[in-house]
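Hi there,

I know you've been waiting on this one. I reran it after we fixed the sequence typo, so this is the corrected version. Both the input and the resulting structure follow.
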Amino acid sequence: MPRLTSADVARESGVSRTTVSYVLNGKRDVAIPERTRQRVQEVAARLGYTPSAAARTLRSGRSDLVLCVVPDWTIGPVIDTLLDHLTTELADRGLSVLVHQDRGPRPLAELWRAVTPCVVLGLAPFAEQDLLAMQQAGIQVVGSTLDDDPQPRTFSVPQVEIGRLQVEHLAARGHRSIAYAAPSDDRLAPFASRRLAGATQECERLGLAPPVVRAVDLDTGSAAAAVRDWRAGPAPVTAVAAYNDEVALAVLSGLRAEELATPQDVAVIGVDDIPAARLAAPALTTVWQAVDAQASYLAAAVIAALDESADPPVRPSDVMHVVARDST
């Protein structure tokens, strides 16, 4: 079956291809009778014709596509929720989101040159050469970072602060010997190293020994082995700061396997406040992150980048806090 073109719509509507283009691409600064607009739209709908996105991009110089670049991270509940919120907010503004997980040797430039996005949004900072190339090509860049960063159109999620909050909470409940349950997946190192650094800094500030670090897989055997190590020394661990809620749930399982009570013997705090945290036994104390606020900020930053008259996004004041539950 031959591909439909604007010529087919023009012939069926009794107008020129230029008129079809103006109508279907929403140009309102051209004087076209409303009856003609309706006829063209009705014919296009009946024939099943839609304008080529690539051609529309060439004509306008800009697409309605936002390229969201995710580093080579595991896609857990937090990133999944962030992308869901972000996609919904940008869809409400007439923009589509293409999510690209940056794996393999293919240069990023090959991708953005192929899809011609209006904005490239990064969930981590771009390499300097990639950033410069996109800016030289006239592509707006928006991003987020795992550290404090005052740059405009950049959302900061300081991971060091997460680890600091965990230890501050545990120490306030009287714990002096604290462990850190690290993830076993190396792809999470950018997050884990910063969170551990924050926990270590807070221990030092409070005059505590550095946290005893063990990697914990998401299974009971691995967690139980870590618990045995933590409890075997001269100063048995009485509290665990876990990399995230999933690792914390594994630690709870390991504690039960070792017949230890939480929080009576060992308290546990996670990160992310995933739904399962509230359903755990005992309910899991955790550090909540403002994922919806981050998505809203990034969406507003995209709009501001495209429309210089738009107000710059306002950074939310509360991006993380401890949600205290029974596990501590």
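Quick highlight: The longest helix spans residues 189-205.

Best,
R. S.
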